[in-house]
Design brief:
The complex is a heterodimer.
Chain A (H helix, E strand, L loop, with lengths): L4 E3 L2 E5 L4 E6 L6 E7 L6 E6 L5 E4 L2 E5 L5 E6 L8 E8 L7 E3 L3 E6 L1
Parallel strand pairs in A: 2-11
Antiparallel strand pairs in A: 1-3, 3-8, 4-5, 4-9, 6-7, 7-8, 9-10, 9-11
Chain B lengths: L3 E4 L2 E4 L5 E7 L5 E7 L5 E7 L6 E2 L7 E4 L5 E5 L8 E8 L5 E3 L3 E5 L1
The chains are: A mainly beta, B mainly beta.
C-alpha cells in the first residue's frame, strides 16, 4: 500500500535547539496533518495544511505543505522538555476520501 | 468536552476469546475510524464509517468486525482473538475540517 516516509526516525536534541522533520511520498496528497503523541495517550492534532505551499504556525511549531504536494515539513523552534514525544504526519489522498496514510513517526527526546 | 471516549483502556485476552472495543464521540462528527498502532509501523486503518449506516474496510480488516451503532458510537469486535492482534487500538472521528480527533487508546494483549 501507499507509504509515507518520515524522517528522522528519532532525534536527541538540546533544550533550546530548533528541530526539523519531514514526510515524503510518491503520492500526491490533498491534506497534510501533523500530530503529537505522548506516552499512553492518543495523537493530538498540531497543525492541518490544506493547499500546496501553505505555511502554518501554531506557537513554536511551523509546518509547510510542499509545493509538489508529495511532502510536508514540521519545524519546532527553541525546543523545551515538554516537546518530548512522537510526531506523526498523515496525508489525505484526495478530497472526499476517508483514508489517511500515516508516517511511522519521529521520536523526539530533548536533553535539558 | 470529552471528544472521543474509548473503553476499555486495557484488556488481556486468551487466544480464541472474543471482545468488543467501544468508542463514542460527542462532536457530532459524521465519520469514525478504528486504527491499530504497532511499534515501527505507524497507525494502520482497520475499518471506517463514513457516515451513520455505512462501514468499509481499511488496510488491515482481517479478524475484525465493526458496528456503527448510531452517529455517536462505533464499536470494534474481535470474534476470535489471536496473538497477532496484540496492539494499541485507537478510535478517531472527523467532521467537516477533515482532521482526525483520536481517543486515548485501548491496549490489548492476546496471550
Amino acid at each position: 500500500g501507499q507509504q509515507l516516509n518520515q524522517s528522522p526516525q528519532s532525534m536527541f536534541i538540546q533544550e533550546g535547539e530548533d528541530v526539523s522533520m519531514n514526510c515524503t511520498s510518491s503520492s500526491i496528497f490533498n491534506t497534510w496533518l501533523w500530530y503529537k503523541q505522548d506516552p499512553g495517550e492518543g495523537p493530538v492534532l498540531l497543525i492541518a495544511l490544506y493547499k500546496a505551499g501553505e505555511l502554518t504556525s501554531n506557537g513554536r511549531l511551523t509546518a509547510q505543505f510542499g509545493i509538489t504536494r508529495k511532502d510536508s515539513f514540521l519545524n519546532i523552534s527553541a525546543s523545551i522538555p515538554s516537546d518530548v514525544g512522537i510526531y506523526f504526519c498523515a496525508g489525505q489522498l484526495s478530497p472526499g476520501t476517508y483514508k489517511y496514510i500515516f508516517g511511522t513517526g519521529t521520536r523526539l527526546k530533548v536533553l535539558a | 468536552n470529552a471528544g472521543v471516549t474509548q473503553t476499555p483502556k486495557f484488556q488481556v485476552l486468551k487466544t480464541g476469546q472474543s471482545m468488543t472495543l467501544q468508542c463514542a464521540q460527542d462532536m457530532n462528527h459524521n465519520s469514525m475510524y478504528w486504527y491499530r498502532q504497532d511499534p515501527g509501523m505507524g497507525l494502520r486503518l482497520i475499518y471506517y464509517s463514513a457516515s451513520e449506516g455505512t462501514t468499509d474496510k481499511g488496510e488491515v480488516p482481517n479478524g475484525y468486525n465493526v458496528s456503527r451503532l448510531n452517529k455517536r458510537e462505533f464499536s470494534l469486535r474481535l470474534e476470535s482473538a489471536a496473538p497477532s492482534q496484540t496492539s494499541v487500538y485507537f478510535c478517531a472521528s472527523s467532521g467537516g475540517a477533515n482532521v482526525l480527533t483520536f481517543g486515548a487508546g485501548s491496549r490489548l494483549t492476546v496471550l
